[in-house]
Give the backbone structure.
Amino acid sequence: MTILETRKLSRRFGALNAVSDVSLSLEAGEVRAIIGPNGAGKTTLFNLITGKLAPTGGKVIFEGADVTGVPAHALVRRGIGRSFQITNIFPRLSVFENILVGVLAGRGKTTNLFASLLSFETEAAEAREILDRVELGAKAGLPVSALSHGERRNLELGLTLALNPRLILLDEPTAGMSVEETASTVALIRRVAQSATVLFTEHDMGIVFSIADNISVLHQGSIIAEGTPEEIKGNRTVQVAYLGEEA
Amino acid sequence: MKKLSDAAVSYGSRPIATSLVNGKTLTLAGFAAAIAYPLLDGNLYNLQLFTEIIIISLLALSLNILIGYTGLVSLGHAAFLGIGAYASTLAMQHVYPSIWAGLTASVLSAGIVALAIGVFCIRLSGLYFAMITLAFSQAFYTIAFYWDSVTGGDDGLIGIPRPDISLFGLTEISIDGFVGYYYFTLVIVALAAYLMWRILNSPFGAILKAIRENPERVEFLGLPVYRYKLAAFIISAAFGGLAGGLFAPFQGFISPELLYWTKSGETVLMTILGGIHSFLGPAVGATVLIFLRDTVLNYTEYWKIIVGSILILCVLFAPGGIVGFITARLSEIFKGASK
């Protein structure tokens, strides 16, 4: 079953074609990497899929429905979760509160004006479970400022997971992490991928080749190649355009 | 292992369920003192001063829903004090001579006006939000100033009644005297403050704080940030309007000055002075500022110089406001004691 499809998706910024005629198709359960040099249009593509930017052309189809132009918050409700390139959390709430806010939002409990927050035990339990999944269970009560960079990235991923998305977009999930943190995040993404479709960008080719089922290569806003890690490794166009200097 | 994480979690959920300054005990003690006060001190001047403090505390608390919790600095909050005051006066003088009619009119009119202008204001943030709220409040000031036939223009409205309260038709209670109106104000403001506290410690309140921290991320939690901010704006205005509804009968007359931008500025100052990161901080700020004004006025009419200097010291050395400063010192002392 196809979960996400983009049809000739395009976005221009003035004279610049940041994304042009990108057609992607993701199977449910797939782990897909989008690679490409800086400025290839990866983040713009993510912004188009998640509704943060409106496309200047083309369509986004999610689970069979045309969702082009649907606002970001409504897409989240439909099951598209996103983690950001720049760590994007709530800095002055505690680690636990960060996730709890996400769980409450995911369960549609946030229009409740009068019930005490402490009475939401099911949600609190789910928040604890998510914290354990992202290996922050022992740090629940700490302020976010006490977390390392890698832990904050995990917290952000936890916040995305709190909404139970069926499709998760991860923008450079291991950027700036230490070797140990990277290893644990890779393991975490593998676990997440067992219950959701994952679309991610990443600069580290080792990680891309080890997690992705399929890879799409973006170059100057267009897809120039697509295939399994082996196919991409052997693809001449990709080597010239992207891996050029290294290969 | 499970116990450990439970302990961490119960600690972790404390900051959202903001304790009333230093917990319920202190708040209840303050409330008890406020109830006992008229019995201990028969000075009517002081009683009036306290009544004003209680009403203006409500105004500052309501503003802090925007400033401290949602992260929106409004420079036009006095507009809702004024709208509430005019609405309650007009309702009592021309519709139905009951304090309940007055208070209901003040809350509804402030809320409706907030909905109408909030649609525009909430699209902006930061400095632009501050500016547009200031502009709207000045527009309302101008309306109050020139719409003679309704607002009495520059002279305002006089002869505002304090009608007796009927308790289920069983008995009538007079709130016309100083003591009666003091207690009436105390009860209404305490109920309103409790309601606000509940709202701010609900899931909705948690989302307001999350919006303050990072609106973009809240959008990616699947929530329409705009509507949450608008709701906060309306709730804040409604409580501000209630303060106006209590203020008009308190003073007995009202004039456009209530809506003037300096009044809004004063309310922002109180809120910051008391501390925006604690629920009751703004009430402490209102108390201190009104006391200062009253005390310093005995010595010099240039009280604003003294008050201004104190504010500068406060902002420089206690950026968390009075309550933030005290809480920080207390936690230092307790840390020292536990070592």
Remarks:
- The radius of gyration of chain A is 18 Å.
